[in-house]
Structure formats: structure tokens, C-alpha cells
Amino acid sequence: MVVRGQEVDKMPGIKIGGLTLDESGVVVPQVGIYSFKFQSGSTSDSHGAFSIISTPGDTVLFTLQGYRPTLLTIPMDLPSTKYFTDVYIVKDTITIEEVTVFPFKTYIEFKEDVTKAKTISPETENMNFNISLVRQQLYYNLGATPGEGYRFTIQQMAYDAYTKGQLH
Question: How far apart are CA 134 and CA 127, in angstroms?
């Protein structure tokens, strides 16, 4: 009768190797690999090949973001000091095509807020009226009165001073 204990240092080291694949057989690179008994890790290379030292009965964890964690238990009775196997890991995420985030509970609330008329100050309203009056007079070749021309000039100078150095 053969009895084996849990002492790691008396168990022979076994080279575990193989490929990491997804459920359709496509190679999955850069999978994280962790041996629980030796408390050491590795990763598969860019071609999905991996190699790690372990012991019989050890559990090896394979992890990668977007995939379910996969456990591999090393068989107790191995005929050699090498064990080669392919490890299949399963996708665990769903690809979302588009996500739209609104600061409102519903699209209708968003639409109402964006389309409602915004109140403007009386000064801005007067300025818009005076500018439209000057533009109308210039369009119809009507001579602007000196007061309107002066007001327009002062408004343009104030706007230029306010926006100086800003990108439009």
C-alpha cells in the first residue's frame, strides 16, 4: 500500500506544459498560471504555450480577464516527470456594441431638457436686438445712425476684449 502526504518538499517536481485554448480551439495567449502547492506562477506565451513546475495532486489555476478561471488537477499517478495537456478556458464576457449614458432617468427627460428654451438676460436680449438691427440696416443699405454704429462698435470691442486669447 502506497500512502502520500502533503509535504511539498518530498514530492517530485513535474514539468507541466501544453497550450491554452478557448472553447473553439483558438490559441489564447498571456494566460496567468498559478500553482497552489508551490505558490508560484507563470504565463502562457504569445502562442499559448505554457510550462510550469508542479507536483502530483497539485491544483493549477489558469486565469485571464474575459475568461472564467479554470482549474487543472495534476494526476497522482504519472508515469514520468513530464505532463503535457491542453487547457481549455471558457469566455466569460459578452461584447456590447454600444452604450449610451445619460444623466437622466429616461430619454424623454433628456430630450425635454435639451430642447427647452433657455432664458437669457435682458442685457443679452438688448444686445442681440441691436446687432440684428445694425445687420438689417447694412443689408438694406440703410445708413446706421451714429448711435447704433457707436453701440455696435463698443459691443464688438467688448467682445474682442472678452475673448482675447481664446480659441474659437
Answer: 11
